[in-house]
Design goal:
Order of helices and strands: HHHHHHHH
Helix content: over 70%
Radius of gyration: 34 Å
Distance between the termini: 26 Å
Structural class: mainly alpha
Number of strands: 0
Strand content: under 5%
Length: 291
């Protein structure tokens, strides 16, 4: 049989291979489509739940962005002013390696800045509680005092480190430069401390923008993956139909497929002209083929 009908057998096996690939791609499309629908639902729920956070004017968005940029600038000044002090302390507490000193130079100023933002939020919360008689003004004053002490740590530590270094190296420390940077740092941190409401609103909007971007990107990626899989399925089916018709024109008629029932329904929606009454046998599910 294979010797006499080798070309027919090879053509038939090729059709079976293409049908299997179409079934696999169809199943992959259903999975991708389900993920895309789930991502779209999550994005819709996110907008319904948190959409009011994003409904702010452009001036407010600019204010939030300016506040975040200001925090980055304060962080840069803190690294310049306090980084050496943090690295020196870390080198005393850590090993002989410079890794801990390098990490502390950039991490410690960020930690202090985060602590000040948290204190600023507590100051705003205590102010709100005192306004509506839920708390006392002493709590707000205590948070303010604590914030000022934290804000003073970096310029004072930088001054002490510079003085110690000048004694060791027997050279004069740039007192004026350190004083100017210290004043700038303290003033900037004081602005952060008394900008609690702006800090809270900026943090909320930043979190909303990040989550919105993540959800939108995930929904777009899932939808794109489903569309690409569907396009691949369509291309494979077109090639299959041409090969199937060519096979039936040259050799004994071969039933199409077999295809999964769900895949057949999908293909009928994608190719309604092929599924017309003149060519009903193109789409045959496994159940129809067995029958």
């Amino acid at each position: 049989m294979y010797a006499d009908n080798s070309y027919e057998e090879l053509s038939r096996q090729s059709l079976v291979t293409k049908a299997v690939a179409i079934n696999d791609t169809g199943r992959a499309y259903f999975r991708a489509s389900a993920l895309a629908e789930r991502a779209a639902t999550k994005l819709k729920n996110f907008y319904e739940t948190h959409g009011t956070v994003g409904r702010v004017t452009l001036m407010k968005v600019v204010e939030y962005v300016t506040f975040v940029i200001g925090l980055c600038c304060i962080y840069g000044v803190d690294v310049l002013l306090f980084g050496a002090s943090a690295a020196y302390v870390a080198s005393l507490l850590g090993s002989e390696s410079d890794l801990w000193a390098s990490i502390a130079k950039f991490v410690v100023p960020a930690c202090f800045l985060g602590i000040e933002v948290l204190i600023a939020l507590q100051i705003e919360k205590s102010r709100h509680d005192a306004r509506f008689a839920f708390g006392s003004g002493a709590a707000r004053k205590g948070w303010i005092a604590l914030g000022i002490l934290v804000a003073l740590v970096m310029p004072l530590a930088a001054a002490a480190t510079a003085e110690s270094a000048s004694i060791v190296t027997e050279s004069e420390a740039p007192v004026m430069m350190i004083a100017v940077l210290g004043i700038i740092s303290f003033t900037a941190h004081a602005l952060v401390l008394f900008g609690g409401r702006l800090a809270q609103e900026s943090k909320t909007y930043l979190a909303y923008a990040v989550m919105r971007g993540f959800n939108e990107q995930r929904a777009a990626s899932r939808a794109s993956e489903a569309a690409q899989t569907l396009a691949s399925l369509n291309s494979m089916f077109i090639a299959y139909v041409h090969a199937w018709r060519t096979h039936n024109a040259r050799f004994e008629a071969q039933p199409s497929g077999p295809f999964d029932k769900d895949v057949v329904e999908l293909l009928r929606r994608q190719f309604p002209h092929v599924a017309s009454a003149s060519a009903p046998a193109v789409f045959q599910s496994a159940e129809e083929s067995a029958a």
